[in-house]
Model the fold of this input.
Amino acid sequence: MKLLLVEDEPVLLEEIARGLGDHFLCETANTYAKAEDKINLYQYDAIVLDITLPGGNGLQLLRQLKKRFPETCVLIISAKNSLDDKLTGFGLGADDYITKPFHMEELNARINALLRRRDLNGNAVINFDILQIDTQEKTVEAEGKLLHLTKKEYELLLYFVVNKNRLLSQQSIAEHLWGDHYDMLDNYNFVYLHIKNLRKKIVSSTGQDYIKTVYGMGYKFALS
Done:
């Protein structure tokens, strides 16, 4: 999978490229002109696109891109107060957005979700070991047996599966489950509680404990 990362902040651009480099082949552009040249030369699987760029506006790039390669997934990077830009981006064909600041786990999960939806061609089922997740019906089964999960437990499981084998911090999990309101939480006890309940239900149904606790750092979802 080949990604184009368009961001004018050099430190953030380097961080994104480094964070996604283990999973994707990444190219970068830090100006409007460089990004325009790249989208005219190559079809990318996905583009991470900042809106404010030296020499032009990312929304104009989005407009050009969708005319040439409408199937390319586009995730907009936006500031928290740029609601109008987000809505305009969706109107031009953007697939998702993420607000600054963000965690790399969250960015990776969103990109994988976009690529999965594109590649599944309507098939909404994700398989992990003996777990079967239907993202359309929002149900989870283990060898035909339904797991009765709460909404948060389902969202947590999907986040784990999309980021399988990656270390996820409590903060990134909290941000994923509660969005911009995660910083209103007094502590991460709710994260621990949801993980504890999800782990109990998975172990009860499968006999497997996929959620690995990395003490002092976070959690990892992986086969034993």
Q: What stands out?
A: Residues 189-206 form the longest helix (18 residues). The mean pLDDT is 87. The radius of gyration is 18 Å.
